[in-house]
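User
New here, help please:
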Amino acid sequence: MLTDFQNLDFFPLTVGDIVANLLIALACGLFIAWLYRRTSTAPGFPPSFLSSMVLLTLITAMVIMIIGNSLARAFGLVGAMSIIRFRTAVKETLDIVFIFFSLAAGLAAGAGAQAIAIVGTLMIGAVIYTLARVPVLTPQRKEYFLQFSYESESDDDPPYLPVLQRWCRRHRMVSAAAGRGEGAMQFAFFVQLRDPGDNQALLRALRALPGVTHITLAFDDEQF
């Protein structure tokens, strides 16, 4: 009797139901990817992550439709997917939230709960968008970590200070160490740009200075 119960399909899906569920999952996935792009505070993000959220929503919906009401298929898919190992490190906590967001939307769409998928995606998306726009709740990191080497034989004022004053709202030296050559120094600063989009302009200005080499500008583990 238990075997017959597991093989019983209470809600058989038609081709129209399958297409409708996948279209709802696709719409939710595209909205989630667009929302991530609009609310991400990092200066750069991999385009593959946006595509992965859309595909994750679609694949989750398909998996739920495959399982249906079959307990045997559910355990079979769990066993089959347990061989997959995910070794990519997630840098931001909010990225994990978006991954679960995509999973939840796909689960709702695949189960045929289209109203839950649409309304839930819109409401959760509105909350995420609002939180991202309220700096009191989600303070954004604005400091970059700047490293470079400077070599000079004169005691004149270093030419990099006017550049930092021009492009940075604030700059704070973290460390200064002697380099390998005579008169060579290695500096590390925390800097806050006047405009977050000026990172490339700052790098070009530093590269144009005589004696300044090995420049690294880092923010949220992204280097420029």
About this structure: The mean pLDDT is 78. Residues 2-133 form one domain. The beta strands are 143-151, 168-178, 184-193, 212-219, 222-223.
